[in-house]
Structure formats: C-alpha cells, structure tokens
Amino acid sequence: MSKVADVIDKAKAEGRAALIGYLPAGYPSVQESIDAAIALARNGADIIEIGIPYSDPVMDGNVIQAATTEALAHGFRVASVFDVVKAVTDATKDLGTAVLVMTYWNLVMRMGVDEFSRRLAEAGGSGLITPDLIPDEAAEWFEASDKYGLDRVFLVAPSTTPERMAMTVEATRGFTYAVSLMGVTGARAAVDSAARDVVEGARAAGAPRVCVGLGVSNSEQVREIGAYADGVIVGTALVAALRDGGAEAVGRLAAELRTGLKRTTAAGA
C-alpha cells in the first residue's frame, strides 16, 4: 500500500500529472512553514515535500540553502519535523494530500532509522525522499519502511546506468524521482531536454510512476513535463515565493502552477 502512489494514480485518472511541492521545515519559522505547506496543498499541490534543514546540503541551490541556513540559525532541530508533518497532515486530511519528508541520510542515521521511521509514521507522514542514499546502502531503511508502511523515494539522473536504473526502480515505492539535469536545485528558464530521457529510462526499467524535479518554476514548464511524466516537482520557486511574500504568495504560485497540469488527450493517452 502506498498513499503517494494512490495520490498520483488519482491525478492520472483525472487526466493530469500530480503537482508536488517542496518547502523546508522551520522556514522562516516552524509555524510559518506549516502555514505555507497548508496553503500549498489547498491551492493545488497533491503531494508536499517537507525538507529537513541540514548544514551540508550538497544537492540544494542558493535559495534553498539560504532558507535552511536561516532555519538552523533560528534553532530548528530534526525532531521538529514531525510536528510540522503532523500539523500539515491534520490540516489537509479533507484533501487527501500525501506528505513526504526529504532528508539527507545522515540525519536519519543520527536519530536511528527505526525511531525516525516510527515517529514519521505516527505523525502521518507517507515516506522519505533520500537524495544521498543509494539502494546498495539502504538495508536498514528497507526494513524500517516495510515495518511502518512508508514509501521510499530514490533518485535517478541522466548519468544513471541501465543497471543502476533497474536496481533503483525496484527499490523505490511511491514514485521514482527523476532529476532533470545534473547539478543543484534552482529555478531555470528552460527545463533540460534530458528529463524526458530519464523518464523513459525509468519506465523501461519498470517504474510505474516517475516524477520530474530540479529546475521547474512556472506553469509552462509544468505543462511541458506533465505531458510525459506522472508528476512535476517544484521547489526553489516556492521557497522564493515564501521568502518574498509568505504563505499567501506560496498559495498564489501553487494555483498558477496547477493551471499547467491539464494534459491534452494525446499526451495523456
């Protein structure tokens, strides 16, 4: 059973891709990050990614790094992410929104994989996105995610070999996260053409659901990716909206991004 898969399948049945939005926990404050995530869900996001601030975010670009650095400076601690997840899941039950946590693996290991997983499940979280964890090193996570019914989202990229693609797809539950380009996160004027190739490679390896992230910032890019992927992931643009205009700005951007989701009959076939 996978709540994330169910949410994506529901969107697909409606003839569109799912909208997935990322926001860091604790930025600008814990309550404001909760309010922003709720606004994101209520304005069209199907899945919310809650990021845990980390001092060495190797995958994150300048906007997200600045936000997470500020959250840490204000005293954010890993355990607070469960409060954020619970508040968001409780407030969006009527919408059926799935809430994932995105985290670097060191933070999970430090708390203890079983304890982290148990607390995430108790808070209503659906699973983890783990950008720096590979299936070869995920034995504890496999055990804990099965024990607590959590989804495990691994990443694939343009550089992923067919052999590793197959391994990663098999290990994944919920959706396979296709990185559209090499490098760190950040809004871009155009989405790299490699995104479609990564999606096709993941599907060829047996992935039932593939979502694309990194670089997506507007409804036209959402429309472009939503024509061939099962979900579109937006992060930096939403964090910038939160920085500049608070939760209301996040809601406005989510509503605008949602307009790009409707597929044409040919693309959705």
From TrEMBL:
Q: InterPro entries given for it?
A: Aldolase_TIM, RibuloseP-bd_barrel, Trp_synthase_alpha_AS, Trp_synthase_suA
Which CDD domains does the entry mention? Answer: Tryptophan_synthase_alpha
Entry's SUPFAM superfamilies? Ribulose-phoshate binding barrel (SSF51366)
The pathway where this protein functions is:
Amino-acid biosynthesis; L-tryptophan biosynthesis; L-tryptophan from chorismate: step 5/5
Gene3D superfamilies from the UniProt entry: Aldolase class I
Q: Where is the active site?
A: 49, 60
Keyword Iron appears in the UniProt entry = no
Q: Which residues form a coiled coil?
A: none
Q: What is its EC number?
A: 4.2.1.20
Superkingdom, taxonomy of origin: Bacteria
Pfam annotation, one family: Trp_syntA
Identify the keywords attached in UniProt to this record, alphabetized: Amino-acid biosynthesis, Aromatic amino acid biosynthesis, Lyase, Tryptophan biosynthesis
Its recorded reaction(s) are: (1S,2R)-1-C-(indol-3-yl)glycerol 3-phosphate + L-serine = D-glyceraldehyde 3-phosphate + L-tryptophan + H2O
Q: Does the keyword Amino-acid biosynthesis apply?
A: yes
What's this protein's family per the entry?
Answer: Belongs to the TrpA family.
Matches recorded under NCBIfam families: trpA (TIGR00262)
Protein's job: The alpha subunit is responsible for the aldol cleavage of indoleglycerol phosphate to indole and glyceraldehyde 3-phosphate.
- Summarize subunit and interaction data from the UniProt record for this chain: Tetramer of two alpha and two beta chains.
Give the protein's recorded name: Tryptophan synthase alpha chain
Annotated source species: Sinomonas cyclohexanicum (Corynebacterium cyclohexanicum)
The beginning of the lineage is: Bacteria, Bacillati, Actinomycetota, Actinomycetes, Micrococcales
